[in-house]
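Quick start: read one record
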Amino acid sequence: MSARVLILSQDDRWHKLQELGSQITTWLGQEDGIQIEASHSLEVLAGDELGTYDVCVLCTSMDGLTAVQEQGLVDFARQGGAVVGIHAAAVTHAESVAYIDLIGGRFDRHPPKQGFRVEIQDNRHPVTTGIESFEIVDELYVLDRKPQGVRVLATACWEECAQPIVYTKAYGKGHVLYNALGHDAAAHGNLVYRDLMVRGIRWACDVSTISKLLALYEGLRVTDVCDGLDAVGLIDTCTMDWEIRPLWRDVECFRHRIYGVAHTLRFVPTGRVVPRPLPLEEYKVWKSDWYRQLAPGPREPITPGEILVIDAAEVGDVGFIGSNNALGWIVQGARGAVTNGGCRDTDELIVQKVPVYSRRIARGIRPGRLEWDAENVPIACGGVRVYPGDVVVADGDGVIVVPRAHAEVVAQVAREIANDDKQGRQAKYQQAGLEADPSLDQLG
């Protein structure tokens, strides 16, 4: 399925951004799975057509934004679309409060165009992983506020203060990426800048596609999805072993329930001879080296909406999912973790409300026991073959996996089944004199 990208570009008296829009189209021409369309009018933001796109790229000043256009763009993002703002997209009038909140700030000032260094602050994000800090000749934008709720990927220093240059944020069910670089041809010709732009739009396509797919699964239970899989002929092939269960349950708000797309990891038992005993300091070095070189966590960046699905080789007393690393995955955008192995630090995991589904509680660590084998490849977990990008749903009844090729049809059938169940239970609630609760709310 191709992602539809709208590139909205307009020139103003300071910027030749239509030219940048054309260049971006050329840069993206070699990217598979992206369908690009162009517009040169903000009016496109006010129409129903905007909702047919996955990504809206703003190569324009937003100073002429009307209230209707602003609402259209805000609704687009809230409903799962991705917005990529470039340079002048932070230029808007003060009354555009909702848009300023969406983009993260409003242009305030910049020093004269000059050369400066862009420092990469986060090399774990798909947009910046593998990119080194670099020099560019450009305008260094300063915003009128510190963006809130953002993940800063790159900064530049002005007046001894680090200014956010590239950042991402969640917005409703959608996502926003803002890149303050890109004033003119000098900046557009910078190869690292081009790489950041292509990666940024590629990331926006990925998160938007995931968001719209997962919106189909919002509110669905494992049992609803199981019935949907039965309807397409996938009977008893997608439900993980019943021993893989939630570490904790929230019976009031159901925060233990998760649904997302699979980011797979596979570990294998080590065959290395472990030196024992070691002096304490040597042991610390040995353990650190093993984590870093032989058994790290995910090596590839986590995309928001993913669930870590880990084949831990059924090794007994290894707590792969712990309070520190699991919380780190959540911070990066993961919705939870599923493993056929063990989890540890369970008291902290419960307090932190990190959704974890595992076969057992364990105590040991990876060094001396397990080695990293592969990532984002087909794995076996709980008796189910899991491919990267498959839909994973987990709740108090266990874990179920929907092959990506069947995801939309299964969700449609499961939603009908869920709503019929809610309607039937609502009548029985009334007969039993029970007070209605959120579990009876119909799914859209």
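The radius of gyration is 24 Å.
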